[in-house]
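Entry for the shared binder. Reason: the reviewer on the internal report wants the predicted structure included alongside the sequence.
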Amino acid sequence: MEQSLHQTQVVTIIALVVFALIMVFIGVISTRRTKSIDGFLLGNRKIGAWVSAFAYGTAYFSAVVFVGYAGQHGWNIGLGSIWIGIGNAILGCLVAWLLLAKRSRTMTHTLSVKTMPEFFEARYNCTPIKLFAAVIIFVFLVPYSAAVYKGLSSMFTTIFPSVSTNVWLLIIAALTAVYLVLGGYVATAYTDFVQGIIMIVGVFAMVIAITASPNVGGFGNLMANLRAIPDNGDGITGAQITSIWGGASWKFLCVNIMLTSFGTWGLPQMVSKYYAIKDVKSIKKATIVATVFSLIIGCGAYFIGSLSRLVLNNQLPEGGVDSVIPNTLLTALGDPNIGTTIILAVILILLLSASMSTLSSIVLTSASAISVDLVPTVKKNYDPKNQMILTRGLCLLFVALSYIFATMNITIIVNIMSFSWGVVSGCFIGPYIWGLYSKKTTKAGAWAGMIAGFLTVAVTTIVLTATANADTFAAAFKVASSKAPEMGVAAMAVSIIVVPIVSAFTKKFDDKFLAGVFANKEEE
């Protein structure tokens, strides 16, 4: 047993060293393309189709999807949870790219803006709306960055039981900081491409290894074995696990599909990928690549989660649903040989890749919200030359903060995480989409969409916390937090509905202003 563990450790360390060297190398060679703030944040808008697509996909799927969502929903819902992966690919990628990519690329180029808050300022001729957007990004995305570490500890501590979890989290943070600070978005995009390839290989390895597990019995027997799962006391049987529409959980399934799919339409770290793509011609190819990538990663992750009850003999691990995927993998690969050891090493690098790609994207977005959107506005006579230094420094600071939040498990930070997607997308989705498409959208309409989206979550949280039947505020707030997905979906819907309604009754922009906003400088 000790010899097998030693073999696994050696192979894993070799894989980690090779992976780290590749990431640092990309960061170093990317520095020559980050001489300006536009180069640092957008790669001078010259990122190719494949790299842009992988950057989008890897920012979409972090380790939280594999370990948190896939473990929880696969265990509780079963095969029906695969619809989340399908929804993410179709709605969160295909439709999002078809609807937003070309318009975003063209308009941000015309307006010469680099961030979503800058877009709001230029589109609605309003500096305060930029400041509000920057604050929302900072408050809700920086804490969310800590969540990307989730699930990594279970895998690493099992293979390296004598090494503290915090050591592995520090390695992730340090490695991400190195290539991000050196190469900015260019380094992030190209490391995402490498990490995306690793994620695809890792998902296929996971599917093959787990399906071949004796308890699963291969593709030919898995359905019969899933149907035979008895109720272990939690009320879930094989009928639920094999229900194609999610069985009794179909409403919960629909809410999560909408939150995780439509949420990407208003998240600045996702839509920024449209800004950076090199030309409109590349968008069609990137749309296809991003959709296929998301289909593989999303469906693969939830498929693996749906088989977890078979592999674990229908017994929830001691660590709860967050331990489902790690324990499923370790059980399925429990008889180490050189083949399973290599697969396990690839899976560990997959989780690392998923975490680092999402972390770097969030941190870059958060840093730019301060250095590009907030500081130059509030500080008069700000020297643009300092912007690069400040942005790099903030990237380093925010990576450090994400590490601290992840290791200290600060209660308020954990609570903010649960609302992050819903609040950010709920504030931005309406003003962003209507701003791209409708000349009738007004400044008041944009403000109304942002504030309504935010208040939908804030007011609902206050009401649910106040009316919860709980002994302490923390317990009551936890009850409210459990409804965060529903609040997020409601906030996005409210934002999209409110913007055109308020715009219909408020002052329109003049034709000259709109002509400048909707011009296409690339065709001039």
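Summary line for the report: Residues 412-524 form one domain.
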